[in-house]
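Reopening this ticket.

The earlier resolution said the output was attached, but the attachment link was broken on my side. Pasting everything inline this time so it's all in one place.
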Amino acid sequence: MSSLPFLFTNPAILAALVALPVIWWLLRMTPPRPAAEVFPPLRILASVMKREETPAQSPWWLTLLRMLMAAAVILAIADPVFNPRQNTLSSAGPLALVIDNSWATVSDWDRRVEAANALIDDAEAKDLPVSIVFTTDRQHDATPASATTARDRLA
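Inline output:
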């Protein structure tokens, strides 16, 4: 069990953090200076126009900001999950599931069944009885049964 309140769903992407020194090196590079070609009629304009000066390297704070942004993007792609689901079932009594199976739940029925199966798996791991009640049943029989019976009823 992790002591941190979050985990990464794609921890392999965190290996890209090793590439940060390469990114730093690329950010500090400057392209070679273009070759200057003098065009005689523009000599007068060149003396009038203000010269634009560019630094040889980016300032340290700008490079640091870019590195922090690259690290933030890598961490975001690794998909951190705060307070991941832990096995939180109490072993004091049976697991009671009340599932709404009316017509209004059609849009997310698969997600509900998936969540119920996860809870039944947790109860089976702790050897707890499971009782399932569906809201549209005429009789609400909530007698605790085994996990396999609950899965059969859920299916």
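Reporter confirms the inline version is readable. The beta strands are 6-8, 80-82, 95-99, 130-134. The chain has two domains: 6-82, 95-154.
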